[in-house]
């Protein structure tokens, strides 16, 4: 059998030596293995504490070795969002250990144990990690603590109720006895998992709710963190991939001899639609690929252009779609409105371009397949690797790594399947690293959207009718396959149907229009990143049409949602909304309810010569419910905002000749430090159910910036990115 | 078969082999010479379409008269020149007449190649015959009336094509003559570096005095000290031709980078020196815009924050340029990225800065591939004009004439051709 | 064989002269702290120091790198400025995914070494070549200022 060459290294203050952590207790004799205590519904946060959870069969979330060192198996993938630290804090809080005694490893693929309850599969995405794991991980920690107490009490012959725990040990005050978790682990493991679990009250938290230092950071600032791209294995070769530049096209020929003549190149591997050149190092692979000069057969998509694409979307948008939401005859109300407004908005294809380019390492040997990769979806990766390798899924082992930025890209695992398909042609491990050009030209793109809005105001400037027709691809269909044509894609209308506002009459329609074979997928902010832009831009248009202040215009629509109202008021206050903006600067606003969180954002921006936008300041107010790590919430808001501003100002993937025209950061441009605004964040203290935060900043950015640009220039841009050409034109 | 006969057959065949080997060696020499001259004449660049097979033609040339495509010169019998006779091949290079008797457009530099003696032309032919035949045909030319009337070229040739071979100047050294031959003949330097008259012929009075070609400036390479290469040392010139770079003069970009990548870097040091010697002797032409050498600029830190478009230029430079070129303009990871002394930065038209920003640059140097990506899609005209002017003021002779509108115009020229 | 002076030690490297230093570090020497992000000097993920100057190793030919002393993220913490920068980074929790941070830190150390008290404009000039897709820019700015005071 193939040797376990390397597993992903653990993260934490004490570096547990390299070992096959999931290979059972042989290596960790006497370890405590605890089952996931996973409630199927986490929605009802308030009542959940104290509810006896259903108990799953035992598996591994926690291990305690004889020295009292705790290994936590973290169900969510760390890609920069700080989830390792947050989830460790949830476990450690209830277990009552300090994080300095903890090391973390990524959960292996196992739907039964590690499925995210909100998504229903093992996946890190959709800003759901904290929402899904807040209770299950705390329950696991609490159960373990109870078992350790019981083990101690049993051996000391004292009532468990008299024992207390403190930072990794159990003690009994009356008898003066004390034992570390390490000593107790073996006995505790033999006990049944308790059925009644007591969780701490929020005011007892020592870790949750505090700005903890992240556990993954020390290695990251020293260059010690091993990402998927850094994997090195005995006998491994390194390669790079070129896929047919035209979507859906095939490989025609490749100059193998020329590639093999490059020093260091050892193999040229072929698939139907891709080539890998493999050798001793990336430089050999890059040069070998140039020499190989693959020739492609473009296929049916080869004459596709943006003009044709958007033209056909615009045409599709004229047809009746599926009704996603229909309340109080909005079309009828529109007919009777005093003022009528219509607008069309367009959002471009986008690439994820995480800093760590796509890469995957696979060895297929002796009927088993090992995969070393950073993935948000370990089970999906395993399934696709099995397919690529031509093996059964149980022959595949996924070693999951920390990710150098996901943003949705690593919710896909097609590259894992592709690497396995290459790897099965040889018997040594190959690490395939994509060039940035390949990464951008063979991404799975955020779809293009073409949205039509229509609203009516009454004589007092109040909204009486709101209609929104979304035309765009179905990401559900591309992700899961076979989404019925007569069913609305919930992602396509997320943020369009459910807004913070109580409209008297509202209708949302959806026209499905897929750009196949161009691959599409999730992108940070998913549905709301598109719909919040459209809704909040149009709200701004309506406010101006009604000659009202955008805050004042929104407030009456929030009467039934006090959290939304409070966020907007806090935002108005903190941003100095009612004061005059500095000369030449426009203030733009957005408000959203997405991912279970309320976010308000005010952007201050100016537009200079040549239509160049400068973003000066961002003020955010957020109510994301109960906060696990306040500093991480801020970090995510900052990062998400800059991610969104980047796309709003520069992001677009365009198609000409059936292929992506952008290559690298020279033409798929990123916001840089000198463009980043000052960011001022205000978090509402809340005991409400935790909401998601990873994507909210991104979602908020688009409309707030577009509205600020309008405020600064009087120009309404309904198409992203906000082009200097559109702004510069007098 | 008896032992005897067998031995005789063996002896005979050994003899044959020896004869074959001798002639093969002669062939090899001819082919090697042809290979060298084909490189010196830079045939491959024009006769290869982007992404296409070398020498299979199809590269588009947009000329004022329309778009023409270079022919396939691989030995394919139908698509290429496989069934051309030597005579026809020589006639094409000397007189600009194709196999079928039609006149070739002078985008094909036969007015230079005509200086090559017949043996040199046939060496090229011998080399081309060794290539893999490629059966792809280039697209038809798209030339409008009256320029599609190729017979009109007859008159043009009468006036502008000397149809005579290079005649060495006995008063000059062998080295000088070799240089003159390479520059005027196969190297066809004047095709780009000499301005053209209204009939699209080179102005002989301004030989090598610099010209504009498809949005790029081919600089003055006469011995004029202020505006040409008179101030360069012979060594610098030879180094520039070989590497596409010389210390204190920056790196080649655009078409010149192509010429270095596909042609000049293959020439022997002796030939490059000969070219340098000859160029330094070309009568000076004053083309008006002096090349200005410049000392290292002051540190960027603590400089007063610049205003408006200077600020934009500095910002774009910080984002996209400083990582290679450095704030000192000396080039960070390689001197090839040096901006100080680069001719393009003391050209008031800013044409080549614009060209390089929009089209990027690819240079195959002996130190490995040197490249700059295109910034056309990532940055607006305002930003590109600003960064060009920032770089020209910081590292060159001062602001250029480039404006956002000019950048927009230049974009239309595209990057092919 | 080329002799490379890396982090105070001489390493013999068997690689072509035109091979970019980044691949020498990562694939030949196994020093994976320096990251690949773009390969065209546009992102800064591969930043190392050559004689104290921040350079993009993805476009630095081996032959050029061999002419000076190289310092990488693995050992920048041994320098006084490097130590301060890493401390400030940890203190302000700059890092998200961390992939760009080796390069950010190397650029920040070079900036502070040349300019111990950088203004906002100086930070822009020194750091705009480093992309962070996670958007840690506000914290990078703050951490550089903090490191200047440590
Ligand atoms: S990898 Fe070197 S700058 Fe991006
Ligand atoms: S921390 Fe993720 S790219 Fe900078």
Q: Which chains share the greatest interface? A: A-C, 62 and 56 residues
How many DSSP-defined strands of chain A?
27
**Which descriptor suits the 3D outline of chain A?**
globular
Which regions of chain A are unreliable across 5 or more consecutive residues at pLDDT < 50? 1-6, 13-59
Count of folded domains of chain C: 2
CATH superfamily of the largest domain in chain A: Aldehyde oxidase/xanthine dehydrogenase, molybdopterin binding domain
| Known CATH architecture of the largest domain in chain A | 2-Layer Sandwich
Q: Can you count the helices of chain A?
A: 20
Rounded to an integer in angstroms, the radius of gyration calculated over CA atoms of chain C is 15 Å
Q: What's the number of structural domains of chain A?
A: 3
Organism (chain A): Arboricoccus pini
Protein name (chain A): Isoquinoline 1-oxidoreductase, beta subunit
Pfam families (chain A): MoCoBD_1 (PF02738), MoCoBD_2 (PF20256)
GO molecular function (chain A): oxidoreductase activity
What does this structure look like?
Chain A is α+β, with helices and mostly antiparallel strands. Chain A folds into three domains: 4-221, Aldehyde oxidase/xanthine dehydrogenase, molybdopterin binding domain (Aldehyde Oxidoreductase, domain 4, 2-Layer Sandwich); 228-298 and 358-433, Aldehyde Oxidoreductase, domain 4 (2-Layer Sandwich); 306-349 and 445-713, 2-Layer Sandwich (Aldehyde Oxidoreductase, domain 4), CATH 3.30.365.10. Helix content of chain A is 29%, strand content 22%. A seven-stranded mixed sheet of chain A has the order 10-11-8-18-15-16-17. In chain A, strands 13-21-20-19-14 form a five-stranded mixed sheet, with helices on both faces. In chain A, strand 5 and strand 6 form a beta hairpin. In chain A, helix 11 (378-389) runs parallel beside helix 12. Chain B has 417 residues and is mainly alpha-helical. Chain B has three domains: 29-165, no CATH class; 188-291, no CATH class; 308-412, Cytochrome Bc1 Complex, Chain D, domain 2 (Orthogonal Bundle), CATH 1.10.760.10. In chain B, 41% of the residues lie in helices and 7% in strands. Chain B contains 15 helices and nine strands. In chain B, helix 1 (3-40) packs across helix 5 (118-129), helix 3 (86-95) crosses helix 5 and helix 14 crosses helix 15. The longest helix of chain B is centred in the N-terminal third of the chain and has 38 residues, at 3-40. Chain C is an alpha+beta fold and 150 residues long. Chain C has two domains: 2-71, Beta-grasp domain (Ubiquitin-like (UB roll), Roll); 76-149, [2Fe-2S]-binding domain (DNA polymerase, domain 1, Orthogonal Bundle), CATH 1.10.150.120. Helices cover 42% and strands 14% of the residues of chain C. Chain C has seven helices and five strands. Chain C has helices spanning 21-28, 62-65, 73-76, 80-91, 101-114, 120-127, 137-149, and strands spanning 2-6, 9-13, 47-50, 53-56, 69-71. In chain C, strands 2-1-5-3-4 form a five-stranded mixed sheet, sandwiched between helices. In chain C, strand 1 and strand 2 (9-13) form a beta hairpin. In chain C, helix 4 packs across helix 7 (137-149). Chain C is globular, with a radius of gyration of 15 Å. The chains are: A alpha+beta (730), B mainly alpha (417), C alpha+beta (150). Chains in contact: A-B, A-C, B-C. Chain B: Heme c 3 binds at residues 321, 324-325. Chain B: It comes from Arboricoccus pini.
């Amino acid at each position: 059998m193939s040797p376990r060459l390397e597993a992903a290294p653990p993260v934490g203050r004490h570096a547990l030596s390299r070992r096959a952590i999931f290979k059972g207790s042989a290596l960790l004799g006497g370890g405590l293995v605890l089952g996931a205590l996973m409630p199927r519904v986490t929605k009802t946060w308030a009542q959940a504490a104290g509810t006896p959870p259903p108990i799953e069969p035992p598996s591994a979330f926690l291990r305690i070795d004889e020295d009292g060192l705790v290994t936590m198996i973290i169900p969510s993938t760390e890609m920069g969002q700080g989830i390792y630290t947050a989830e460790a804090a949830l476990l450690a809080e209830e277990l009552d250990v300090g994080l300095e005694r903890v090391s973390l490893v990524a959960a292996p693929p196992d739907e039964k144990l590690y499925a995210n309850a909100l998504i229903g599969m093992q996946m890190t995405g959709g800003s759901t990690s904290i929402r899904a794991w807040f209770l299950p991980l705390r329950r696991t920690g609490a159960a373990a603590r109870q078992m350790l107490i019981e083990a101690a009490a049993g051996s000391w012959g004292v009532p468990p109720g008299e024992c207390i725990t403190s930072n990794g040990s159990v003690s009994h005050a009356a008898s003066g006895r004390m034992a570390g978790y390490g000593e107790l682990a073996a006995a505790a493991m033999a006990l049944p998992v308790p059925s009644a679990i007591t969780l701490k009250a929020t005011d007892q938290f020592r870790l949750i709710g505090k700005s903890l230092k992240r556990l993954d950071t020390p290695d990251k600032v020293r260059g010690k963190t091993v990402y998927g791209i850094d994997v090195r294995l005995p006998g491994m070769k390194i390669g790079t991939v070129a896929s047919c530049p035209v979507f859906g096209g095939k490989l025609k020929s490749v100059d193998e001899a020329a590639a093999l003549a490059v020093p260091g190149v050892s193999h040229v591997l072929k698939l139907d639609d891709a080539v890998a050149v493999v050798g001793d190092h990336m430089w050999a692979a890059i040069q070998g690929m140039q020499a190989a000069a693959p020739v492609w057969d473009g296929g049916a998509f080869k004459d596709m252009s943006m003009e044709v694409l958007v033209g056909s979307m615009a045409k599709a948008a004229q047809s009746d779609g599926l009704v996603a939401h229909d309340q109080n005859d909005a079309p009828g109300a529109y007919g009777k409105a005093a003022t009528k407004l219509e607008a069309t908005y367009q959002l471009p294809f986008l690439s994820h371009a995480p800093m760590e380019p796509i890469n995957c390492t696979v060895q297929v040997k002796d009927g088993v397949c090992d995969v070393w990769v950073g993935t948000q979806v370990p089970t999906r990766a395993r399934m696709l690797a099995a397919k690529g390798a031509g093996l059964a899924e149980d022959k595949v082992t996924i070693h999951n790594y920390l990710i150098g930025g996901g943003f949705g890209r690593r919710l896909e695992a097609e590259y894992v399947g592709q690497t396995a398909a290459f790897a099965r042609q040889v018997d040594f491990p190959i690490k395939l690293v994509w060039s940035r050009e390949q990464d951008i030209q063979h991404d799975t793109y955020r779809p293009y959207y073409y949205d039509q809005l229509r609203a009516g105001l009454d004589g007092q400037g109040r909204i009486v009718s709101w209609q929104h027709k979304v035309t765009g691809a179905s990401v559900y269909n591309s992700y899961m396959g076979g989404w019925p044509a007569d069913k609305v894609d919930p992602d396509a209308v997320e943020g369009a149907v459910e807004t913070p506002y109580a409209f008297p009459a509202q209708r949302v329609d959806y026209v499905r229009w897929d750009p196949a074979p161009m691959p599409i997928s999730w992108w940070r902010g998913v549905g709301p990143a598109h719909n919040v832009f459209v809704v909040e831009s149009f709200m701004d248009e309506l406010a101006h049409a009604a000659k009202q202040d955008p805050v004042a215009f929104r407030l009456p629509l929030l009467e039934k949602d006090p959290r939304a109202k409070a966020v907007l008021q806090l935002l108005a206050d903190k941003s100095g909304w009612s004061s005059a903006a500095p000369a030449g600067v426009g203030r733009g606003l957005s408000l959203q309810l997405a991912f279970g969180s309320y976010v308000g954002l005010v952007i201050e921006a100016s537009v200079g010569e040549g239509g160049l936008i400068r973003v000066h300041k961002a003020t955010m107010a957020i109510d994301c419910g109960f906060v696990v790590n306040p500093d991480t919430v801020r970090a995510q808001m900052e990062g998400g905002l800059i991610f969104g501003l980047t796309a709003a100002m520069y992001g677009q993937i365009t198609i000409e000749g059936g292929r992506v025209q952008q290559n690298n950061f020279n033409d798929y441009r990123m916001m840089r430090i000198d463009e980043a605004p000052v960011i001022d964040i205000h978090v509402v203290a809340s005991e409400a159910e935790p909401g998601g935060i990873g994507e909210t900043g991104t979602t908020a950015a688009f409309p707030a910036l577009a509205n600020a640009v309008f405020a600064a220039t009087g120009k309404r841009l309904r198409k992203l990115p906000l082009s200097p050409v559109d702004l510069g034109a007098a | 078969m008896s032992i005897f006969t067998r031995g005789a057959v063996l002896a005979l065949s050994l003899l044959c082999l020896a004869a074959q080997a001798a002639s093969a060696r002669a062939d090899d020499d001819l082919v090697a010479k042809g290979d060298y001259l084909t490189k010196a004449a830079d045939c491959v660049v024009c006769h290869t379409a982007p992404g296409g097979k070398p020498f299979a033609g199809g590269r588009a040339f947009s000329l004022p008269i329309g778009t023409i495509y270079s022919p396939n010169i691989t030995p394919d019998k139908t698509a290429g020149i496989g069934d051309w006779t030597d005579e026809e091949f020589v006639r094409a290079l000397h007189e600009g007449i194709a196999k079928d008797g039609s006149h070739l457009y002078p985008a094909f530099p036969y007015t230079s190649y005509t200086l090559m003696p017949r043996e040199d032309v046939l060496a090229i032919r011998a080399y081309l015959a060794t290539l893999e035949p490629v059966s792809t045909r280039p697209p038809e030319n798209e030339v409008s009336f009256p320029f599609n009337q190729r017979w009109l070229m007859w008159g043009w040739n009468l006036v502008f094509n000397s149809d005579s071979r290079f005649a060495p100047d006995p008063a000059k050294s062998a080295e000088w003559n070799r240089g003159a031959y390479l520059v005027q003949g196969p190297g066809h330097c004047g095709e780009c570096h000499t301005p053209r008259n209204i009939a699209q012929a080179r102005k002989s009075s301004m030989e090598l005095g610099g010209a504009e070609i498809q949005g790029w400036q081919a600089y003055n390479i006469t011995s004029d000290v202020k505006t040409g290469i008179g101030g360069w040392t012979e060594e610098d010139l030879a180094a520039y031709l070989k590497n596409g770079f010389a210390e204190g003069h920056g790196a080649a970009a655009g078409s010149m980078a192509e010429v270095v990548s596909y042609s000049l870097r293959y020439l022997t040091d002796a030939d490059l020196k000969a070219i340098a010697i000859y160029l330094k002797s070309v009568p000076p032409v004053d083309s008006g815009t002096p090349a200005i050498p410049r000392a290292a600029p002051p540190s960027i830190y603590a400089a007063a924050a610049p205003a408006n478009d200077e600020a934009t230029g500095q910002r774009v430079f910080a984002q996209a340029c400083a990582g290679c070129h450095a704030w000192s303009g000396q080039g960070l990871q390689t001197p090839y990225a040096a901006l100080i002394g680069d001719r393009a930065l003391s050209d008031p038209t800013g044409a080549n800065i614009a060209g390089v920003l929009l089209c990027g640059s690819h240079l195959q140097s002996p130190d490995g591939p040197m490249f700059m990506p295109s910034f056309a899609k990532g940055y607006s005209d305002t930003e590109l004009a600003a960064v060009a002017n920032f770089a020209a003021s910081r590292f060159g002779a001062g602001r250029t004439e480039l404006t956002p509108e000019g950048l927009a115009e230049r974009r239309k020229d595209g990057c092919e051709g | 064989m080329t002799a490379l002076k890396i982090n105070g030690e001489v390493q013999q490297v068997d690689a072509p002269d035109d091979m970019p230093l980044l691949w020498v570090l990562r694939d030949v020497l196994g020093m994976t702290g320096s990251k690949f992000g773009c390969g065209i000097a546009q992102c800064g993920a591969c930043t190392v120091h050559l004689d104290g100057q921040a350079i993009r190793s993805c476009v630095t030919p081996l032959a050029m790198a061999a002419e000076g002393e190289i310092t990488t993220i693995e050992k920048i913490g041994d320098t006084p400025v490097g130590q301060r920068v890493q401390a400030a980074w940890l203190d302000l929790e700059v890092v998200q995914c961390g992939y760009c941070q080796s390069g950010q830190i190397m650029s920040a150390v070079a900036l502070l070494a040349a300019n111990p008290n950088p203004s906002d404009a100086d930070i822009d000039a020194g750091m705009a070549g480093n992309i962070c897709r996670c958007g840690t820019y506000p914290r990078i700015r703050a951490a550089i200022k903090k490191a200047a005071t440590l």
